[in-house]
Amino acid sequence: MKGQNKLFIAIIIALILGVGIGGLVHTQYPESAEPFSKNIKLLGTIFIRLVQMIIAPLVFTTLVVGIAKMSDIKMIGRVGTKAMLWFISASLISLFIGLIFVNWLEPGHVTKLPIQDAASAEELLKSSKGFSLEDFVKHVIPKSIFEAFATNEVLQIVVFSIMFGIALANLGDEYSQPVIKLLDVIAHGILKMVGYIMWFAPLGVLGAIAAVVATNGFEIFKVYAVYLRDFFFALGILWLVLLLVGYLILGNRLFELLRRIKEPLLIAFSTTSSEAVFPKLVEELERFGCNNRVVSFILPLGYSFNLDGSMMYMTFASIFIAQIYGIEMSIGQQITMLLVLMLTSKGIAGVPRASLVIIVATCSMFGIPPEGIALILPIDHFCDMGRSMTNVLGNALATSAVSKWEGELENHGGKM
Question: Residue 352: which CATH number?
Fold first, then answer.
C-alpha cells in the first residue's frame, strides 16, 4: 500500500504542476504556447502508448484463460447474461440521466458560446461519414485477428477471444491445459509490466494537463463554466446512482473497492483514457477479491459495452448542440435518439474522443448541424476527464457485482 500511496501522491503533484506550468506558459510566454504544448504532450503520448502496447495481449490472454478455466458452458452463459443485463441497464440509466438533466438545466439556452470554426471538427466529421449498420458489423467481427491486434480493436479481440476460450473449454484437459497454462503465465507477466508502466503515469498526467492549459489558458474554464457545471452536476447524479446500487450489492465493501481503484480513477481523470488503466484495474479488482476468471471475462466486455460516462455524455452533448442552434426536439425524437445511441455506441473503445464520432453521426441523423461539435471541442478534454473516470467506476462495479452474484467475491482479496 505504501507504493500505491506514493504513486497516488506523485500523480496529484503532477496534476498541480501541470496546471501551474501550463498557466505560466500561457500567461508569460504566449508566443511559445503552441510549440510548448506540442512537445510536453509527448510525455502523455509516451504513457498512453506504453499502456496501449499491452492492452491487446492482456485482453486476449485474460479473457481466453477466464473462459477456458470456467470449462462449464452453462457458467459462461450465466455470467455473460448477468453481465449484459448490468451493461444494458447501466447504459439506459446513463443515457436517461443525460437526457433529463440537459433538458432541465438547458445549458445551450443560457450559455453564449463563441462560435468555433468548423474546421476544428473536420477530422471528426470525416471519420463519422458513412456510418452504417454494415460498418458497425465490420467493426465488431474481425477480418483478421492479427489486424485487430495491430490496431488495438478491443471489441474484435473480445469476439475472437470468447470463441477461442469456449473452444478450449470443450477441447479436453489433455490438449487445453498446456495452452491455458501458457496464456495464464503470459497474462501475469504482462500484469507485472503494469507496475513498471504505472510509474510513467505522473509524467503522462503532467504532459497532458500542461498542454491543454498552455494552449487554452484559464479563460476556458470561465467561458464554458455553465456547460461544465451542468455536465459535472449530471455526472455527479450518475455517480450517486451507481454508488447506491453498488452499496446495495456490496455493502460496506464498496468503500474498500473505492480505495482500491482510487489510482485508476485518478489516472483516467488525468489522462482522459479509461483504456489507460485497464491493466491496473484488472490487478486491483483481483486484489479486492473478485474471482480472476470473472474479472478476465467481464472487464474486457465492459470496456466495449459498459461505458457509463460516455453514454451519459452522448445524450447531454447531442441535445446541447441542438439547443445552441435553436432546434427544438420532441420527447419522441429524443427517446428515439436515446435508443439509436444505445445501439450505435456499443463497441466504442474507452479512448479519448471516441464518443464524439458517435455524437457527430447521431446529429447528422436527426438534422442537427454536425459542425456543432466544434462548439464543444475546446472543453471536451475536461468533459472527457469526468466521463473516463466514470467509465472506470462503472466497470469496476459491474465486475464486483457479478462476482458477488456468482458467490465468487472473497473477503480478504483474491489470488494474483
Answer: 1.10.3860
Task: Evaluate whether residue 183 is within a structural domain.
Answer: yes
CB 118 within 8 A of CB 371: yes
Judge whether 197 lies within some domain. yes
Please give the backbone phi and psi of residue 409, each rounded to the nearest 5 degrees, phi first: -105, 110
**413 falls within a domain:** no
- Which residues share a beta bridge with 290? 409
- Residues 400, 290: contact at Cβ < 8 Å? yes
- Rounded CA-CA distance 109/127 in Å is 29
Q: What is the pLDDT of residue 345?
A: 65
SS3 290: strand
Domain for residue 220, yes or no? yes
CB neighbour burial string for 159-173, b if at least 16 within 10 angstroms, e if fewer:
bbbbebbbebbeeee
Kindly state the percentage of the chain with pLDDT values over 70: 84
Please give the residue range of the domain that contains residue 280: 3-406
Between CA 267 and CA 204 the distance in angstroms is 9
If one counts the domains in the chain, the total is 1
Tell me the per-residue pLDDT of 377-386, one tens digit each, with 9 for 90 and over: 667 778 888 9
